[in-house]
Amino acid sequence: MSTYDGPAGGVESRTGPSVYVQWEAASRTVRLLNPPMPVMVNMRSIDPDAGRPAYESASTPSLRVRAAGIRFEPTVSGHLMAWFQLSDGQWRGLVTIQLASPNGRTGIEATLYVRPDAMTPTTTQEDR
């Protein structure tokens, strides 16, 4: 039985390391997208508080936090890197997203496991 253990066919995130996968080559439970597909992710399906206004918070955050804290919008653009099948037969997408603060000084790239109904393919200026 052949196995694969290494970078996912050269699939790299836009700003981070390669997607690393290990699976049996004949299993067909992992499908890599090269190049990655631009998608919009419904973040409220992941966290119902995504995009909630600061005034709805239990405590009003300071101006420092409101400026430098990560902004979590209801929808976020990302890149679908791969599909993988769960042991119960469902599929999930491996998506990288960029999150940033309102002042643009802090940010993070996050990799998420996303249900198919929580993302929508998009086109970007680069794709046109």
Structure description:
- The structure is a single chain.
- The chain has 128 residues and is mainly beta.
- The chain has one domain (3-127).
- 5% of the residues lie in helices and 48% in strands.
- It contains 1 helix and 7 strands.
- A hairpin with a 6-residue loop joins β5 and β6 (107-114).
- The termini are far apart.
Features of the shown structure:
about 130 residues; mainly beta; two-stranded antiparallel ribbon; 7 strands; disordered N terminus
What layout of secondary structure does this protein have?
Blueprint: E1 3-12, E2 18-24, E3 30-42, H1 63-68, E4 75-85, E5 91-100, E6 107-114, E7 119-121
Task: Quickly describe the structure.
With 128 residues, the chain is mainly β.
Using only CA atoms, what is the Rg?
Answer: 17 Å
Bulk shape = elongated
The main pleated sheet reads as: 5 strands, antiparallel
Structural class: mainly beta
> What helical percentage do the residues reach?
under 10%
The succession of helices and strands, N to C, reads EEEHEEEE
User: What is the tally of helical segments?
Assistant: 1
Mean pLDDT: 80
Tell me the strand order in the biggest sheet. Answer: 6-5-4-3-7
